[in-house]
């Protein structure tokens, strides 16, 4: 049953391209996820014991007291009430509920009251229909859909504390291997934290129905090995370059509505409605996991975003084939 549940869970999170991580709550990576799995296993074990006892008693009763040949003419003796049995089925469940309440309170406190150590990373995650804006206020970095964090080792803990905000409707941030889900609510700051101890890519999804493309509001958490995260930050802090090389594409970007919605650092483009494109090509996917970020898919996206992510708020810009080629060549320099 456990395996079935895990399989169903991972199957429910199918991603647009191949994923190195598995979305499996039973493979925790880091403190909050471990606390949740430990708690889940305890509850499952308690429930399993109750299930086995109830089914065993039921089967025993059905077999032992079944109607036999020759029983037809008279009813078996009817027994009403038993103080001992009634006491047992009242007291034992109360004790079980009491124990589960204590363990629940302890697990919640363990996750919720964790104080950030001095080297904790602070990140603000903003849910949009249907993508994630990811801001590193202390580093001056803004990206989208991919949360990059350092691995945490027990001697030099570097957990990541997330402040969750919404730009529109309610979303929910959930990366099953790293932590429980936390709702992302408009006009409210919700807090959560992750502390992955193994590097790799971990997948998640918006876990609160938020409109047409709720299913394509995927999250990738990239946990960098020690020392690598700083390199990533440095690469993201640089401005976009190479405008001159692809002037035609650059001019198309700046003469259409692209500039109204997107930011490219180091240029006039300061739009806030869509994802920051300064380092677009450093990302693995387009449209929050709708497609892998390849030149072909990027061109398809520019031609008509609706073909890859129907209902998304980026319009078809009605460019000619030539203009699309030039624009894509410009976008490909944003790495
Ligand atoms: Cu955002 Cu569902």
Brief descriptors of the model:
5-stranded mixed sheet, Immunoglobulin-like, Helix Hairpins, alpha+beta, 335 residues, binds dinuclear copper ion
Shape: elongated
What's the arrangement of strands in the largest beta sheet? 3-2-1-5-8
Mean pLDDT: 88
Output the CATH class name of the domain at 247-331. Answer: Mainly Beta
List each distinct ligand once.
dinuclear copper ion
How many helical elements? 9
Approximately what portion of the residues adopt beta-strand conformation?
Answer: 15-25%
CATH fold-level label of the domain at 247-331: Immunoglobulin-like
Number of strands: 12
Could you give me the name of the CATH homologous superfamily of the domain at 247-331?
Answer: Cupredoxins -  blue copper proteins
- Parts with pLDDT < 50 across at least 5 consecutive residues: 1-20
Which architecture of the domain at 247-331 does the CATH hierarchy give at level 2?
A: Sandwich
Distance N to C terminus? 45 Å
Q: Briefly note the structural class of the backbone.
A: alpha+beta
* Radius of gyration, whole Å: 27 Å
Major sheet: size, sense and barrel closure?
Answer: 5 strands, mixed
Provide the helix percentage. Answer: 25-40%
Encode the helix/strand succession as letters. HHHEEEEEEEEEEHHHEEHHH
């Amino acid at each position: 049953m456990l395996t079935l549940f895990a399989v169903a869970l991972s199957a429910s999170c199918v991603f647009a391209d191949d994923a190195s991580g598995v979305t499996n709550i039973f493979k925790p990576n880091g403190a909050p996820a471990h606390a949740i799995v430990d708690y889940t296993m305890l509850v499952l074990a308690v429930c399993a014991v109750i299930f086995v006892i109830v089914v065993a008693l039921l089967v025993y009763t059905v077999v032992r007291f079944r109607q036999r040949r020759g029983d037809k003419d008279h009813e078996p003796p009817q027994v009403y009430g038993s103080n001992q049995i009634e006491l047992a089925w009242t007291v034992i469940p109360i004790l079980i509920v009491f124990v589960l309440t204590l363990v629940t309170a302890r697990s919640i406190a363990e996750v919720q009251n964790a104080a950030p150590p001095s080297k904790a990373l602070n990140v603000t995650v903003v849910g949009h229909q249907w993508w994630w804006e990811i801001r590193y206020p202390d580093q001056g970095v803004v990206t989208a859909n991919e949360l990059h964090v350092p691995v945490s080792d027990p001697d030099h803990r570097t957990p990541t504390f997330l402040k969750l905000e919404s730009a529109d409707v309610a979303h929910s941030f959930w990366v099953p291997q790293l932590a429980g889900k936390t709702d992302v609510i408009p006009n409210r700051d919700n807090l959560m934290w992750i502390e992955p101890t193994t590097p790799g890519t971990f997948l998640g999804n918006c876990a609160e129905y938020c409109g047409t493309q709720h299913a394509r509001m995927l999250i990738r958490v990239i946990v960098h090995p020690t020392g690598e995260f700083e390199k990533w930050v440095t690469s993201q802090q640089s401005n976009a370059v190479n405008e001159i090389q692809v002037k035609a594409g650059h001019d198309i970007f700046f003469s259409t509505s692209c500039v109204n919605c997107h930011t490219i650092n180091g240029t006039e483009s300061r739009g806030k409605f869509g994802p920051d494109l300064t380092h677009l090509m450093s990302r693995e996917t387009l449209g929050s996991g709708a497609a892998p970020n390849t030149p072909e898919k990027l061109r398809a996206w520019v031609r008509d975003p609706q073909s890859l992510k129907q209902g998304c708020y980026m319009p078809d810009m009605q460019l000619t084939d030539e203009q699309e080629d030039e624009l894509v060549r410009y976008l490909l320099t944003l790495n």
